[in-house]
Amino acid sequence: VADGERTFLVWGGGGHGKVVADLIRQSGGRVIGYIDREPRLEGEVVEPGGARVVMTEPAFLERAMSAAALPCGANAIALAIGDNHSRDACLDECLRFTAPALIHPGASVSASAVVGAMTVVFARAVINAEAQIGRAVIVNSGAIVEHDCVVGDAAHLSPGSILCGSVRVGKRTWVGAGAVVIQGIQVGSDARIGAGAVVIRDVPDGATVVGNPARRLGGGD
Ligand SMILES: CC(C)(COP(=O)(O)OP(=O)(O)OC[C@H]1O[C@@H](n2cnc3c(N)ncnc32)[C@H](O)[C@@H]1OP(=O)(O)O)[C@@H](O)C(=O)NCCC(=O)NCCS
């Protein structure tokens, strides 16, 4: 999906923000500038492409409540806050504006998959038939989402992670780099799956699991 005419404000000027800026440019868009929580970053260049923080988060929120259009001549917004909970908390504000999913030209997304607003799909990620990806999800570099998976809003599938067929992942859940979740497993909301874990049993809401086979940190099943 090339967003040729889109000019973006990027919400979040941290590490994830600069990766999203690259993704915007790689998919044909332009970065106008950043919105960030940190007042000390206002006016600062926060990424190698040269874009600056043009507005603090409180100023943006105030403006967003009253204005119909985005400031600074932007016509779209990208939500680029790395922390899943913070990203989820900002989701509704962004929906007032054009807030498209961003898909790297080198990702493979099935025509029958659904990808929600503000979700970012990085290079070499694969989303297969009839998968449903929520809003503001990070499908990181090389992550694989097999057929019929359902992924909740503001989840993060880290680089190289694999969801086998028909897996469900709840809202704001973090799947660590290289983790594998075998077919049919249900992972709750606000859960964390450690890097390299192999998940063969359902994971409850809020649980952290690590290892192969994955076991719950701090006990429990
Ligand atoms: C699972 C995770 C979230 C736990 O973080 P944490 O709560 O800070 O946990 P700690 O580092 O205190 O580790 C707690 C215990 O779990 C073990 N552990 C942590 N992560 C582990 C992992 N991925 N695999 C196996 N064991 C792990 C630690 O060795 C430690 O064991 P000990 O108590 O016997 O010493 C984190 O380690 C992790 O794997 N995060 C994913 C990172 C990632 O994929 N980043 C990609 C970003 S794009």
Describe the 3D structure.
The chain has 221 residues and is of the alpha/beta class. The chain contains three helices and 23 strands. The protein has helices spanning 15-26, 57-66, 84-94, and strands spanning 7-11, 30-36, 53-56, 76-79, 102-103, 108-109, 114-115, 120-121, 126-127, 132-133, 138-139, 144-145, 150-151, 156-157, 162-163, 168-169, 174-175, 180-181, 186-187, 192-193, 198-199, 208-210, 215-216. Strands 5-8-11-14-17-20-22-23 form an eight-stranded mixed β-sheet, covered by helices on one side. Strand 1 (7-11), helix 1 and strand 2 (30-36) form a beta-alpha-beta unit. Coenzyme A (COA) binds next to strand 22. Coenzyme A binds at residues 140, 158-159, 176-177, 192, 194-196, 208, 210-211, 217.
Number of strands: 23
Cα(first) to Cα(last) distance is: 42 Å
Q: Radius of gyration, Cα only, in angstroms?
A: 17 Å
Strand content: 25-35%
Number of helices in the DSSP assignment: 3
Average pLDDT across residues?
Answer: 95
Query: Order of strands side by side in the largest beta sheet?
Result: 5-8-11-14-17-20-22-23
What global shape is seen?
A: globular
Bound molecules: coenzyme A
Poorly predicted residue ranges: none
Percent of residues in helices? 10-25%
| Largest sheet geometry | 8 strands, mixed
Which structural class is indicated by helix and strand composition? alpha/beta
The H/E string reads EHEEHEHEEEEEEEEEEEEEEEEEEE
